[in-house]
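Hi F.,

I've been meaning to write this up properly since the lab meeting, where we talked about keeping a consistent format for the predictions we share between groups. The idea is simple: the sequence comes first, exactly as it goes in, then the structure tokens exactly as they come out, then a line or two of notes. No screenshots and no reformatting. I'm using this chain as the first example so we have something concrete to point to.
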Amino acid sequence: QAPTEQEIDDALTTAEAIGDDRIQTRYQGSANADTWTHGSAQQRKTWLMKGLTEGSIATCDTWSAPVV
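Output, unedited:
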């Protein structure tokens, strides 16, 4: 069963809230991308949507993705 629009919105909100940049800024006052372990808020949202729209786990291979 496909997720509802509300479920997707909730997942995007959560992905954004727990981005390394958001967490570091909140608790340390600034963000340092060199220390991130799970990506920025935007990266997390991008990969979540890619997984949802592509429908294949293979498209979510962040290790092989080109750096933009």
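Notes:
The helical segments are 5-17, 20-28, 41-54.
Residues 9 and 34 are 29 Å apart (CA to CA).

If this format works for you, I'll send the rest the same way.

G.
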